[in-house]
Amino acid sequence: MNTFTLSTFLTSHIEIEADFVETLMAQCKSLKVDKGSYLLKPGEICQHSFYVEQGLLRYYSIDEKGKEHILQFASEGWFVSDRESVYFHQPSHYFIQALENSRIILFNEDFITGLAQENKSFLEFNNKLLHNHIRHLQNRINQLLSASAEDRYLHFIKIYPDLLLRIPQSMVASYLGITPESLSRVRKDLATKNFKK
Amino acid sequence: MATKNVELVMAPREPHYVGNGFRVHNFIPSGYHLDMQRMNPFIMLDYNSKFYFPPTHEPRGVEAHPHKGFETVTIAYKGKVAHTDSSGGGGVIAEGDVQWMTAASGILHKEFHEENWSRQGGDFQMVQLWVNLPAKDKKANPKYQSIQNKQINRYHLNDNGGEIEVIAGEYQGIKGAASTFTPISLLNVKLESGATADFHFPEKNNTALLVIEGSIIINDKEEAPADHFALFENKGEVVSIKAKEKSVVLILSGEPINESIAAHGPFVMNTRAELVEAFDDYNKGKFGYLE
Q1: How far does A153 lie from chain B, in Å, by closest CA?
Q2: Residue A187 is nearest to which of B279, B280, B289, comparing CB atoms?
Q3: pTM to 2 decimals?
Q4: Sheet order of strands, B196-200 included
């Protein structure tokens, strides 16, 4: 059984009737996407937020020089959304791409407002999720402004313990805002410190 | 003694690539009825059915990756694989050879088609089997048993019927070349057309076979053509195989390890907490570093 379904996520975090969750889920779209395909491209107005039941997505931009900058990875149990586009209806600046064959739940603003109106504990829980997301973004800004490459890497593996085995090193480096060469150096230094033959 | 009946014969599933050098059909654990507990102690079997790789100057393979908590057994039928690990070890697995690698406490390695072989290109055919370790041995130091084909003891069948290479376990008094942590039989059965051979396995073992070449009849009943996998019931002890044509069959039988399994990617432990620790150890370079 997949423990990362959105209905399991909801029922395990808030007081909500299983029947009601089923009605809600019927309003969401479940989508199977192939590795490499896109859920969002720049210029589009994003209609949905995404929840990953299985697989892996990345949320990134490409600068004028053609360099990729990864803002977020979303593996099983993660949400990803271009909030400027979904909630402020602006054309997106970002790509959301599947890095593995994935199963994604799509939901829109109405889903959130509907759920909040019906269920008080959801409102509280959703606020907590938002605060957690903002905390994550604050940490990320601080890391990018002040932390060493090693500290950024150690923070990355805490948040994404299994990603190193699922994505190329160059994407880890892009997320950390360092070159692939410095990532290699960081990992080599850690191994020299920690490897016991 | 009672016959061990066939539970199911399975055709190879859609192949997928491991890195860019191994085009494999997975049988264990994704196959119908072939999950880790059913097949225990065999927790993974990937089969690269015979596939032609054209010549290249850049060897194909899998970049550095870790393993922890079990053993990988690579059986080369065609082609050559070169491997390197984070403690400086390395070698080549050539046609007919078997590499039995005990990852146990953790190893970081990479596997590529051997350089000269890659330049020539050719047919490639291999099995990679993962054998679980009991909790007490999951922390053992990593080691290799590089078993060259000539080191594998053989039982010769009567009337030039063929031979049985005993990779692990025992067959008719012939002892296997590999040492194992729990009781396991791994036999490479090479039969001439029309030849038959019988095998005995305890009921508590989980037992299966993979047809590498040719086509066979099992227990005078079921037919299993090349690249098909047959799972046996636990009940019964005797299996007979008859070759419809010249055939090669890999037989695996092992005593289950009655412990919980927590597996994710290349780590197979007993609990979720141990899995989390395995990822952390890998991320922090405790398995070493390999470009």
Answers
A1: 9
A2: B289
A3: 0.89
A4: B196-200, B238-243, B215-218, B222-225
